[in-house]
Amino acid sequence: MVIWDLPLRLFHWSFMACVFGAIISGKMNEWSVHERFGLAIMGLVLFRIIWGFIGSDTARFSNFLTGPKKVFSAFRDLLQNTPTDKAGHSPVGGYATMALLFIPLMMAVTGSFSSDYILYDGPFYHLLPQFADRAGDIHHFGEKLIFLIIILHLAALSYYRLRLRKNLVKPMITGKGAKAAGTGGTLSKARTVFGISLMISMVIVAQLATQLRPSYF
User: Fold this and answer.
1) By the 8 A CB rule, do 184 and 16 touch?
2) CATH number for the segment(s) 6-212
3) Among 156, 167, 154, CA closest to 3
4) Predicted confidence (pLDDT) per residue in 32-46, tens digit
5) Which helix (H) or strand (E) holds 112?
6) pTM score, two decimals?
7) Residue 138 CB: number of other CB atoms within 10 A?
8) What angle is formed at CA 204 by the lines to CA 202 and CA 97, rounded to 5 degrees?
């Protein structure tokens, strides 16, 4: 059955590429490239938030964001090797997904408000220059959270693969997986095109933030 719709899958791999691109460009001190990746992350997360309300069933937040009781129950089942067969994210995976979204978003936003006062000002620095130092501190602290959440994500994928004999990567590539409970991620062609167009539009709009930076020349 179809588990993940095409716009969601394109978002997933684009988001991953942008996060790693931001990390690598930052380590290389390529700040203009780093900024572009950060703004792309902002646009992609904005798309994912919208898609969490209007996307396919498995993409919607209402499908996987539950109360603490269900989360603890799902975590217990996971440790006992009896995870749910429900299509899409489990309650545990749902909150992990939110962390994977909002930690990079926090990094992108704080980076956009920060400045090194020498060579680089973020595109939003001029809006709140008094926030630049705090934004920079949060941005640098967030780097540790980024690496932590990536490690935890890879560990979860490995656990599912080696312990539960479930490949979570393949369905995110093909969109399809073993039959599971629920309606899955089926979309009409029109909604698929709309979703892809929306994602591209959000990334373009985010990139236009560079035009907000005042020119001093």
Assistant:
1) no
2) 1.20.950.20
3) 167
4) 999 999 999 999 999
5) helix 91-113
6) 0.91
7) 17
8) 40
